[in-house]
Amino acid sequence: MIKVNNISHTFYLGKKGKETAVSVLKDISFSVNEGEIITITGKSGSGKSTLLNLVGGFLRPTEGEIWIEEKNITTLSEGDLADFRLENLSFIFQSFQLIPSMTAYENVELPLVLKGLDRDIRRKRVMTALERVGLQDHASYYPSELSGGQQQRISIARALVMESKIILADEPTGSLDSETEQEILAFIKELNEKENLTFLIITHDEEVAKIGHQRIHLHDGEIMKEGVSV
Protein backbone atom coordinates (compact mmCIF):
# COMPACT_ATOMS: atom_id res chain seq x y z
CA MET A 1 0.00 0.00 0.00
CA ILE A 2 2.87 2.38 0.88
CA LYS A 3 6.47 1.87 -0.24
CA VAL A 4 9.20 4.27 0.74
CA ASN A 5 12.31 3.59 -1.32
CA ASN A 6 15.68 5.04 -0.30
CA ILE A 7 14.45 8.54 0.44
CA SER A 8 16.68 11.26 1.78
CA HIS A 9 15.73 14.83 2.52
CA THR A 10 17.85 17.93 2.95
CA PHE A 11 16.78 21.42 3.97
CA TYR A 12 18.80 24.46 2.93
CA LEU A 13 19.00 27.32 5.43
CA GLY A 14 20.30 30.84 4.97
CA LYS A 15 20.55 33.32 2.12
CA LYS A 16 20.74 32.20 -1.49
CA GLY A 17 24.31 31.44 -2.42
CA LYS A 18 25.26 31.02 1.25
CA GLU A 19 22.90 28.21 2.20
CA THR A 20 23.76 25.65 4.81
CA ALA A 21 22.64 22.10 4.00
CA VAL A 22 20.89 20.27 6.84
CA SER A 23 20.35 16.56 6.21
CA VAL A 24 17.14 15.48 7.96
CA LEU A 25 16.52 11.98 6.55
CA LYS A 26 19.12 9.58 5.18
CA ASP A 27 18.31 6.65 2.88
CA ILE A 28 15.01 5.62 4.48
CA SER A 29 13.18 2.54 3.18
CA PHE A 30 10.13 0.70 4.53
CA SER A 31 6.77 -0.60 3.39
CA VAL A 32 3.28 -0.53 4.87
CA ASN A 33 0.76 -3.24 4.07
CA GLU A 34 -2.98 -2.71 3.90
CA GLY A 35 -4.57 -2.91 7.33
CA GLU A 36 -1.38 -2.27 9.30
CA ILE A 37 -0.76 0.27 12.04
CA ILE A 38 2.79 1.59 11.70
CA THR A 39 4.20 3.82 14.43
CA ILE A 40 7.18 6.10 13.84
CA THR A 41 9.10 7.02 16.97
CA GLY A 42 12.18 9.05 17.83
CA LYS A 43 13.31 12.12 19.72
CA SER A 44 12.48 15.65 18.60
CA GLY A 45 14.58 16.45 15.56
CA SER A 46 14.92 12.81 14.51
CA GLY A 47 12.96 13.41 11.29
CA LYS A 48 9.53 12.00 12.23
CA SER A 49 7.45 14.97 11.08
CA THR A 50 9.50 15.41 7.92
CA LEU A 51 8.91 11.76 7.05
CA LEU A 52 5.15 12.08 7.59
CA ASN A 53 5.05 15.23 5.46
CA LEU A 54 6.92 13.42 2.68
CA VAL A 55 4.50 10.48 2.72
CA GLY A 56 1.60 12.95 2.82
CA GLY A 57 2.93 14.73 -0.25
CA PHE A 58 3.48 18.08 1.46
CA LEU A 59 7.23 17.82 0.81
CA ARG A 60 9.22 16.17 -1.96
CA PRO A 61 12.25 14.05 -1.06
CA THR A 62 15.68 15.21 -2.17
CA GLU A 63 16.34 11.62 -3.27
CA GLY A 64 14.29 8.43 -3.55
CA GLU A 65 10.70 7.52 -4.31
CA ILE A 66 7.41 7.15 -2.44
CA TRP A 67 4.76 4.84 -3.86
CA ILE A 68 1.18 4.88 -2.57
CA GLU A 69 -1.51 2.66 -4.08
CA GLU A 70 0.94 1.73 -6.88
CA LYS A 71 1.48 5.37 -7.85
CA ASN A 72 4.83 7.14 -7.56
CA ILE A 73 3.72 10.35 -5.87
CA THR A 74 7.19 11.91 -6.18
CA THR A 75 6.66 12.29 -9.94
CA LEU A 76 3.27 14.02 -9.72
CA SER A 77 2.73 17.70 -10.45
CA GLU A 78 1.56 19.89 -7.59
CA GLY A 79 -2.01 19.84 -8.91
CA ASP A 80 -2.09 16.08 -9.45
CA LEU A 81 -0.51 15.54 -6.04
CA ALA A 82 -3.20 17.66 -4.36
CA ASP A 83 -5.90 15.66 -6.15
CA PHE A 84 -4.25 12.36 -5.20
CA ARG A 85 -3.98 13.41 -1.56
CA LEU A 86 -7.65 14.43 -1.48
CA GLU A 87 -8.72 11.06 -2.92
CA ASN A 88 -6.40 8.70 -1.06
CA LEU A 89 -5.16 10.14 2.23
CA SER A 90 -6.73 11.45 5.42
CA PHE A 91 -5.04 13.23 8.32
CA ILE A 92 -5.37 13.45 12.11
CA PHE A 93 -3.46 16.19 13.94
CA GLN A 94 -2.25 16.64 17.51
CA SER A 95 -3.96 20.01 17.91
CA PHE A 96 -7.18 18.79 16.20
CA GLN A 97 -7.05 21.60 13.58
CA LEU A 98 -10.74 22.33 13.98
CA ILE A 99 -12.01 25.73 12.84
CA PRO A 100 -13.45 27.47 15.95
CA SER A 101 -16.18 29.34 14.07
CA MET A 102 -17.55 26.14 12.51
CA THR A 103 -19.75 23.53 14.15
CA ALA A 104 -18.67 19.91 14.45
CA TYR A 105 -20.82 19.14 11.41
CA GLU A 106 -19.25 21.93 9.36
CA ASN A 107 -15.71 20.92 10.34
CA VAL A 108 -16.33 17.34 9.22
CA GLU A 109 -18.09 18.53 6.06
CA LEU A 110 -15.31 20.92 4.96
CA PRO A 111 -13.13 18.47 2.98
CA LEU A 112 -16.22 17.28 1.11
CA VAL A 113 -17.05 20.88 0.21
CA LEU A 114 -13.51 21.27 -1.12
CA LYS A 115 -14.02 18.07 -3.07
CA GLY A 116 -17.14 19.56 -4.65
CA LEU A 117 -19.64 16.89 -3.59
CA ASP A 118 -23.40 17.47 -3.69
CA ARG A 119 -25.01 18.72 -0.46
CA ASP A 120 -27.20 15.65 0.05
CA ILE A 121 -24.22 13.32 -0.40
CA ARG A 122 -22.22 15.47 2.00
CA ARG A 123 -24.92 15.33 4.66
CA LYS A 124 -25.23 11.55 4.50
CA ARG A 125 -21.46 11.02 4.74
CA VAL A 126 -20.99 13.60 7.52
CA MET A 127 -23.72 12.13 9.71
CA THR A 128 -22.39 8.62 9.10
CA ALA A 129 -18.89 9.74 10.12
CA LEU A 130 -20.21 11.46 13.26
CA GLU A 131 -22.18 8.33 14.15
CA ARG A 132 -19.04 6.19 13.73
CA VAL A 133 -17.25 8.28 16.36
CA GLY A 134 -20.30 8.39 18.63
CA LEU A 135 -20.94 12.13 18.31
CA GLN A 136 -23.95 12.33 16.01
CA ASP A 137 -25.78 14.21 18.78
CA HIS A 138 -23.03 16.85 18.89
CA ALA A 139 -23.25 17.94 15.24
CA SER A 140 -24.28 21.50 16.16
CA TYR A 141 -21.63 21.96 18.87
CA TYR A 142 -18.68 24.28 18.37
CA PRO A 143 -15.14 23.09 19.24
CA SER A 144 -15.09 25.25 22.39
CA GLU A 145 -18.15 23.33 23.64
CA LEU A 146 -16.42 19.94 23.30
CA SER A 147 -13.86 18.18 25.50
CA GLY A 148 -10.40 17.40 24.18
CA GLY A 149 -11.35 13.80 23.51
CA GLN A 150 -14.51 14.85 21.70
CA GLN A 151 -12.57 17.33 19.58
CA GLN A 152 -10.14 14.60 18.56
CA ARG A 153 -13.07 12.33 17.70
CA ILE A 154 -14.43 15.10 15.46
CA SER A 155 -11.04 15.33 13.76
CA ILE A 156 -11.13 11.54 13.29
CA ALA A 157 -14.64 11.86 11.81
CA ARG A 158 -13.25 14.47 9.39
CA ALA A 159 -10.64 11.91 8.34
CA LEU A 160 -13.22 9.12 8.03
CA VAL A 161 -15.65 11.18 5.96
CA MET A 162 -13.20 11.10 3.05
CA GLU A 163 -13.50 7.29 2.95
CA SER A 164 -9.74 6.95 2.51
CA LYS A 165 -8.09 3.66 3.42
CA ILE A 166 -4.91 5.37 4.63
CA ILE A 167 -4.80 7.73 7.62
CA LEU A 168 -1.68 9.67 8.58
CA ALA A 169 -1.64 10.81 12.20
CA ASP A 170 0.68 13.38 13.77
CA GLU A 171 0.86 12.83 17.56
CA PRO A 172 -2.89 12.07 17.70
CA THR A 173 -2.98 11.89 21.52
CA GLY A 174 -0.35 14.53 22.29
CA SER A 175 -2.90 17.05 23.59
CA LEU A 176 -4.91 14.58 25.66
CA ASP A 177 -4.78 13.34 29.25
CA SER A 178 -3.86 9.70 29.85
CA GLU A 179 -7.44 8.46 30.27
CA THR A 180 -8.64 10.16 27.09
CA GLU A 181 -5.52 8.94 25.28
CA GLN A 182 -6.47 5.33 26.04
CA GLU A 183 -9.99 6.01 24.74
CA ILE A 184 -8.68 7.38 21.43
CA LEU A 185 -6.11 4.59 21.04
CA ALA A 186 -8.82 1.98 21.61
CA PHE A 187 -10.92 3.67 18.94
CA ILE A 188 -8.02 3.71 16.45
CA LYS A 189 -7.45 -0.02 17.05
CA GLU A 190 -11.17 -0.66 16.59
CA LEU A 191 -11.17 1.17 13.24
CA ASN A 192 -8.11 -0.78 12.18
CA GLU A 193 -9.53 -4.16 13.16
CA LYS A 194 -13.14 -3.72 12.02
CA GLU A 195 -12.64 -1.59 8.91
CA ASN A 196 -9.12 -2.61 7.86
CA LEU A 197 -7.93 1.01 7.84
CA THR A 198 -4.19 1.60 7.52
CA PHE A 199 -2.53 4.02 9.95
CA LEU A 200 0.87 5.67 9.85
CA ILE A 201 1.34 7.39 13.21
CA ILE A 202 4.22 9.51 14.46
CA THR A 203 4.60 9.69 18.22
CA HIS A 204 6.99 10.13 21.11
CA ASP A 205 4.58 8.31 23.44
CA GLU A 206 5.34 4.68 24.31
CA GLU A 207 1.64 3.90 24.85
CA VAL A 208 0.87 5.00 21.30
CA ALA A 209 3.91 3.19 19.89
CA LYS A 210 2.75 -0.10 21.39
CA ILE A 211 -0.42 -0.29 19.26
CA GLY A 212 1.61 -0.59 16.07
CA HIS A 213 2.04 -3.84 14.16
CA GLN A 214 5.43 -2.44 13.19
CA ARG A 215 7.56 0.29 14.74
CA ILE A 216 10.01 2.46 12.84
CA HIS A 217 12.46 4.19 15.18
CA LEU A 218 14.37 7.17 13.83
CA HIS A 219 17.63 8.53 15.22
CA ASP A 220 19.36 11.47 13.54
CA GLY A 221 17.43 10.82 10.33
CA GLU A 222 18.17 7.10 10.09
CA ILE A 223 16.13 4.01 10.89
CA MET A 224 17.50 2.25 13.94
CA LYS A 225 17.18 -1.42 14.84
CA GLU A 226 18.25 -2.50 18.30
CA GLY A 227 20.39 0.59 18.61
CA VAL A 228 22.08 0.18 15.22
CA SER A 229 21.21 2.11 12.07
CA VAL A 230 20.07 -0.06 9.16
Can you describe what's shown?
Residues 2-230 form the ABC transporter domain. This is Acetoin utilization transport system ATP-binding protein. It comes from Gracilibacillus halotolerans. This protein is α/β, with parallel strands linked by helices and 230 residues long. Helices cover 35% and strands 28% of the residues. It has a single domain (34-52, 77-229), classed as P-loop containing nucleotide triphosphate hydrolases (Rossmann fold). It is built from 7 helices and 11 strands. The protein has a 7-stranded mixed β-sheet, sandwiched between helices. Strands 2-1-4-5 form a 4-stranded antiparallel β-sheet, with helices on one face. A hairpin with a 6-residue loop joins β1 and β2 (20-32). It is globular. It starts with a strand and ends with a strand. Residues 226-230 have low confidence and may be disordered.
Key structural traits:
230 residues, alpha/beta, Rossmann fold, 7-stranded mixed β-sheet, 4-stranded antiparallel β-sheet, 11 strands, 35% helix, disordered C terminus, ABC_transpr_LolD-like, ATP hydrolysis activity, ATP binding, ATP-binding
